[in-house]
Design goal:
It is built from seven helices and eleven strands. By secondary structure, it is an alpha+beta fold. The protein has a domain of 174 residues: Aminopeptidase. Helix 4 links the parallel strand 6 and strand 7. 39% of the residues are buried.
Length: 262
């Protein structure tokens, strides 16, 4: 875990609860889930530091946000969170290994990078993602962050990467302003591209777009994961009203509950 863990986050739905991993068992459970999804399901070539886990050196600088099934305690979704202060200790954000981010990182304010987000195949759906996002909103609030950023992956279809087709499905207002466009360090090669689209916008990228994230620039080709990564950026003042209202209502309820009796 990072040294700046924002602990005691606990966001609950009827079936699931989101929390920041407080011990190595929770972190290992998230890394095991990531391994099952990325290596076993997607066939990614992981450079892991431990067998059966998706574990790299960046993990040691991150907080790990988990979603557990309340009945079993099993970790069914996770994401890792790298703050700007921890990235400074590490020396870089993960996304800087894929994109030139000078213009983005020149923005005033605090950054939080989200990455390695995945959901157990048996639990995929809006309830799990909603629980994860609400936990993330709590984390962002407590950390005083201004921007959320990261990468969203698009897998190839039978004919290759439908870069142009996928981008045509993204609304104009969902692309970031030109001055915040990032440049991929490795573009999707021409022989890997196609013009047809077999699958549409992936659910996770669609969820980011619904949150209000921008897609900034062209995608990066990640050979190890065999995906193209899209850089996403969210100015946290642009969170959609339904998320803001739900979050404000939660904070108001907490503040009332914490008042001493008259």
């Amino acid at each position: 875990m990072s040294e700046n863990t924002i602990d005691q986050i606990r966001v609950r739905s009827r079936r699931y609860v989101a929390e920041v991993a407080r011990d190595h068992d929770g972190i290992r459970a998230s890394q095991a889930l990531r391994y099952r999804v990325f290596a076993e399901e997607m066939g990614a070539h992981l450079h892991s530091l431990a067998e059966g886990l998706d574990y790299d050196h960046i993990d040691d600088y991150c907080d790990h946000l988990l979603v557990r099934e309340t009945g079993t305690g099993r970790v069914v979704a996770c994401t890792r969170l790298l703050s700007d202060t921890q990235a400074a200790k590490l020396g870089h954000f993960y996304s800087e290994g894929e994109f030139r981010l000078e213009n983005v990182l020149a923005l005033p304010g605090r950054f939080l990078e989200i990455g390695r987000t995945c959901v157990d195949p048996a639990h995929r759906g809006s309830v799990v993602l909603g629980t994860l996002w609400n936990g993330l909103a709590e984390y962002v609030y407590r950390g005083g962050f201004n921007y959320l950023m990261g990468c969203a992956s698009i897998s190839p279809g039978p004919n290759g990467f439908a870069v142009d087709a996928v981008y045509r499905q993204i609304e104009a207002h969902q692309f970031g302003p030109a001055h915040l466009a990032v440049a991929p360090l490795k573009s999707v090669p021409a022989w890997r591209r196609c013009v047809t689209d077999e699958s549409g916008i992936p659910p996770l990228l669609q969820a980011y777009l619904r949150l209000g994230c921008w897609v900034c620039g062209e995608p990066f080709w990640d050979e190890d994961f065999n995906v193209m990564d899209v850089f996403i950026l969210l100015d946290l003042t642009r969170l959609h009203d339904r998320y803001e209202k739900r979050f404000i209502a939660t904070k108001a309820a907490e503040s009332y509950a914490e008042r001493p009796p008259c």
